[in-house]
Amino acid sequence: MNVYKISKILVIVIGIIASILFVSTLGMEVSMENNSYIVDYFIYISYLAMAIAFFSVVYFVFKNLITHKEQLRRALISVGLFAAVVLVAFILADSTEVKLKDGGVISSFSSKLISTSLNTFYILAFISVAVLGWTGFSKFKK
Questions:
Q1: Is-contact 72 58, C-beta < 8 A?
Q2: What is the pLDDT of residue 44?
Q3: Contact 124, 104 (CB under 8 A)
């Protein structure tokens, strides 16, 4: 039995359990005592479903990357380019301490991380707009 069939069976079982719990909550009188444990069950089911989905996705991604060497090479190039963009953004980031209105202070390292994430967003946004403009221009030129 392969992983796809196992994950499909787990999804069906979780769906049945969630449906039973949902139907059982329809006839209940809502009070603070009932509400707390019902919400707990739904939260645990959602955690379980999220974990199954996460591990299924990670498994199939790594399985496909290992079996297809060309995709692995392209994925590593993409990760390397993204790391280069983050490194450039980190070098360009500002690391001054920021005083908040409530009297708190954001440390210089936290400020550098926030500035790095903003710079990364700006660089990637600029690259995406440039690529869209280039493709639009090349289509218009033809």
A1: no
A2: 81
A3: no
